[in-house]
Sequence to fold (84 residues):
Amino acid sequence: MHWLFLLFAFAAMAFAFLTTSPGILLVCLFAALLLFVLWVLGMYQARVAGSGRDVSTMIDPTELRRLREQIQARKSDAGDTPLP
Fold:
């Protein structure tokens, strides 16, 4: 969708170069600038949305507590056995 903003910005810029009226030129240049800014914002939004983490892969507190208990148990078992 955001690529359409860039296409329309180029079309507005081309129309601005082809017109002879200063009023239409000003409107077209303003429209091209606005559409270009919207394109940049759309690109940024798409990039940020694509880099989000999947919530389903996050560890819940009970699983985290269970993992910590396992690590503590392994540490205590390793501390009890003598080294060869």
